[in-house]
Write a structure and sequence with these properties.
This protein has 297 residues and is an alpha/beta fold. Helix content is 48%, strand content 13%. It is globular, with a radius of gyration of 20 Å.
Length: 297
């Protein structure tokens, strides 16, 4: 292997496509696969080779990077890739899979002789496109020299949380971080909804908190998406956010904590999706405060 490993990217949605593009820009050899091939094909212009199957994508590559919808999808795709996986291949598992399936993913890696890294990323579309993600990583010291150029290409920072990917320390930290992101997103939507029904100009609220401890750039950014009607294209879609919220709730239940805010946020996101906002930015949870079909703008 050269100092620039070859990488197969399995999953080229909002995040995966941006990550693959940055890998190409960093001079790494990239193969890309997506279940819907049309989503992967634009990456050919960046130098990626588009594969028809997961097995074709991973054959002979040094690193497999998975960025798919959830842990079950990752397992299904990796099973399709299995005939072409070489022992010793590094697997950077970047999908937010929660804590329930990390052990199963690590077991799959062990069965096929893969070097497993639990490596979810923190960030949405814009930081993914600019290579400014934060990679949360857990995995063995041996193999890091192979995976580090990959993490450096997709992110501005790598935070190592442990040496055993199967223990899920990186995925646990990701859920903690996402619990805050989702709570803040839901709160931003409710601030706007309450302002609307009370006849308060949201700008008065922003002026009230400006520069103080309650002010928050994230609040203003998410509120602006709703107020300006710029919920598409999504930085982080409603359906994916709901999936993550339910992973958080289940993780809490499994470990002995009741997470009422996360549960309510999951329900709000589900209602927004049912109202037709599934593919919009998660800030569209705002619409869950109103009846279906009601003009909430």
């Amino acid at each position: 292997m050269t100092d620039k490993p070859s990488v197969s990217v399995l999953g080229t949605g909002i995040m995966g496509a941006a990550m693959a593009r940055n890998l190409c820009r960093a001079g790494l050899e990239v193969r890309a696969w997506n279940r819907t091939r049309e989503k992967a094909e634009p990456l050919a212009a960046d130098g990626a080779r588009i594969a028809d199957t997961p097995a074709e994508a991973v054959e002979g590559t040094d690193v497999v990077l998975t960025m798919l919808y959830d842990g079950n999808t990752v397992l299904d795709v990796m099973r399709e890739a299995a005939p072409a996986l070489r022992p010793g291949t590094v697997w950077a598992q970047c999908t937010t899979a929660g804590i329930e399936l990390v052990g199963e993913l690590a077991a799959f890696a062990g069965e096929h002789g893969l070097v497993f890294y639990d490596a979810p990323v923190l960030g949405t579309k814009q930081p993914a496109e600019t290579g400014q993600l934060t990679v949360l990583a857990a995995g063995p010291e041996e193999g890091r020299e192979t995976v580090t150029p990959v993490f450096d290409a997709i992110g501005a920072k790598t935070m190592w949380t442990g040496a055993d990917g199967g223990a899920g320390s990186a995925s646990r930290l990701k859920l903690v971080a996402n619990s805050w992101v989702l709570a803040a997103t839901a709160a931003a939507g409710e601030v706007l909804a309450l302002s609307r029904v009370l006849g308060v100009d949201p700008q008065q609220f922003f002026d009230l908190i400006e520069g103080g401890p309650l002010d928050m750039a994230y609040l203003r950014a998410k509120a602006a998406l709703v107020l300006d009607g710029k919920l598409s294209p999504a930085s982080f879609a409603v359906t994916t956010a709901e999936k993550d919220a339910r992973l958080i709730v289940r993780a809490g239940e499994r470990c002995g904590a009741r997470l009422d805010v996360a549960a309510a946020t999951a329900d709000r996101l589900a209602r927004a999706a049912a109202q037709g906002h599934a593919d919009e930015d998660m800030a569209a949870a705002y619409f869950a405060s109103f009846g279906e079909g009601e003009n909430a703008r």
